Amino acid sequence: MSELNQMDKILIIDNEATTRDVILEVLTLGNFDAITAASGQQGIRSAQKYLPSLILCDIMMPDLDGYEVLDALRQEPSTATIPFIFLTARSLRSDQRQGMELGADDYLTKPFTGAELLSAVTTQLDKRARIQHRTVEQSSEISNLQQQVRELYMLSEHKEKLLDNLSQGLRAPLTNIQMALKMLEGGSNEQQERYLEVLKKECSREIALVNQVTEMRDVLTPESLRLLKKLDLLK
After folding, report:
1. 130-143 pLDDT, tens digit each
2. Dihedrals φ, ψ of 86, to 5°?
3. Average pLDDT value for residue range 147-158
4. What SS3 class is residue 62?
5. More exposed terminus of the chain, fewer Cβ within 10 Å: N or C?
6. Which domains does the chain have, with CATH numbers?
């Protein structure tokens, strides 16, 4: 077995002491950490306490049978997704179907060999590991998407602020242009030349500001915003 199996705790629920001991020995030799419960009620308490990686459970037990144990565990959020394998001497398909309908993951019919037991256990643990791995990947993808949304929101917010500043910056030269045009009317040649220079200067300012607006789309990216905030240049 792999080193990963040494971290997997397996719960054995069976009212027959000999069966529990044999399964415990097989799993221990397979480098699994196994614990036992002698009844359905004890099995439920152990599952809730230890949260094992997998449960092996007999069906025919005097207090609670395996179906009742599975039903109880599936109703508790903390134990609902633990892989569950039935161990039973009953081989009718109707029995197997009942177990699967309750949410069992596998069904081993007695007598079974140690190799069959270890194969069933390994299969379910590998399946559980793949599911957990996918869950981690999905959580990472969701986290990345959330970060992108935050960055886009920040980008939009700062774009609005910059556009507002540019809008205010455009108003000043426009005011000067309007005043200069007004003063050109009826002014002397010397005055007209002076106000023409004002017009040229303010028009250059307007063009520069418009160019900034155009360039901003290429320059203002989430990466550049992070850098600007790090340098404390965005307030």
Report:
1. 887 776 676 666 66
2. -80, 140
3. 61
4. coil
5. C
6. 3-112 (3.40.50.2300), 147-230 (1.10.287)
